[in-house]
Amino acid sequence: MMTSFVAKTIWAFLAVGWYAIRRPHERRARKTPVRHSARDRREWMLLAISFAGLGILPFLYVATGFPISADYPFRPLQGWFGAAVALAALTMFYLTHRALGRNWSISLDVRETHKLVTDGVYARVRHPMYAAFWLWALAQALLLPNWIAGLSGLVGFGTLYAFRVGREEKLMMDAFGNEYRAYMARTARLVPRLR
Length: 195
Ligand code: SAH
Fold this sequence. Notes:
By secondary structure, this protein is mainly α. The protein is 67% helix and 4% strand. The chain has helices at residues 4-31, 41-64, 76-100, 128-143, 147-176, 178-185; strands at 34-37, 109-111. The protein has a two-stranded antiparallel sheet. Helix 4 runs antiparallel to helix 5 (147-176).
């Protein structure tokens, strides 16, 4: 049965699954030399905003019910949709980490041995991992019946996405030149183009 308790528990499983997928990559990333990095204070701010919206605020809500005054009535159908989107988010997150391998990083880095990945989940969209984050934020909005904790993921990740994606593409163009330009010409950012 889908209750608000079950929906909050699903959010918690989503967070644990997310971490389990990411952790081995974080370890590997530390051992993979960086050739060029565009990390700066602005990047760290964006990461903090995104983490607050997708992690801290919803965790506080699931753990304590705060801020209770922003609650609205839970609807089971909304919870079921949230569960389905959460599953899609985890699947996508897993596939993108597997495809990027050592080229992954939490911020904007180009590795010594960086390879441009253009196949699998990267064949038709340039930012499938960010698509997975959008799905997480959407799942959170559906699973948590609270205007603040539910919507904070969309706002937090939305901020990171809006300020980062253009810079990341510029970084990739600088690193890969025409190879990336050709890749841009045949792909979309998040949602595959109709053919
Ligand atoms: N924006 C991508 C990757 C996010 S991880 C996505 O949403 O799927 C961020 C790191 O990935 C950056 O350091 C960048 O250098 C690297 N990156 C981005 N696109 C890449 C690609 N197609 N192939 C290899 N590395 C890529």
